[in-house]
Amino acid sequence: MPSTPTTTQRTPPGEETRTALLAAATVIFIEEGFRAARVQDIAQRAGVRLSAINYHFGGKDGLYRAVLQHHAELAVSRTPFPPPDPTHPHAAFEAAVRTLVRRFLDPASESRIAALMLRELVNPTEALGMMIERFTRPQMQQFRPIVAAVLGPRASEEQVARAMFSVLSQCMGYISARPLVERLMPVALAGDDLVERIAAHITHFSWGGLIALRDALENPT
């Protein structure tokens, strides 16, 4: 009896080209930054014609925006924020911190949004506004009620914002200051399960500060 032929689904050639360009551009934008990156180098690394960048993305600006959006969407889809839970504020806060640390530091993550955004913040382009509105602001809007639930109703908007910034700064510091930490405090980056241990430390350290602030607000001297 003749065997039934099997059919395999192939990625359309155009989509393969687009994917190759996104991958190549990610590496070069992280290494060189947007302004120093050359489209010729991106096309060569991707193994495609230079004209493919204009065809798929409309040019270097469009390619850069597509790279940022691609990695932002990966980060959000793979590590979504937990919902606020006023009845279990510590668990919700711990889960939120773990989400942030994984987005910034997890070596197994396909998203390179942390490295791309650090480049963007050091030398901003017109894409920064797009990233803030599409990615950063929605995430902070999800993080805010989690922090506010810990601080309690007496906390002002300024106090909630500063608390959020303090937590974010700890998470991002492990990337932005990594060369310094590796030389001065290598033990902070040593060992297995680094992401989980950093998340546990930031949670414990920040929780103590949040509770101290809440107590001061509820019992002013």
UniProtKB/TrEMBL annotation:
Q: Name one GO molecular function term.
A: transcription cis-regulatory region binding
Q: What PROSITE patterns does the record point to? A: HTH_TETR_2 (PS50977)
Q: Which Pfam families match?
A: CecR_C, TetR_N
Q: Where DNA binds (residue ranges)?
A: 38-57
Q: Where is the HTH tetR-type domain?
A: 15-75
Q: Which residues cross the membrane?
A: none
Domain of life where this protein originates: Bacteria
* Record keywords, A-Z: DNA-binding, Transcription, Transcription regulation
InterPro entries xref list: Homeodomain-like_sf, HTH-type_TetR-like_transc_reg, HTH_TetR, Tet_transcr_reg_TetR-rel_C_sf, Tscrpt_reg_YbiH_C
PANTHER family of this UniProt entry?
Answer: HTH-TYPE TRANSCRIPTIONAL REGULATOR BETI, HTH-TYPE TRANSCRIPTIONAL REGULATOR RUTR
What protein name is recorded for this chain?
AcrR family transcriptional regulator
The source organism is Niveibacterium umoris
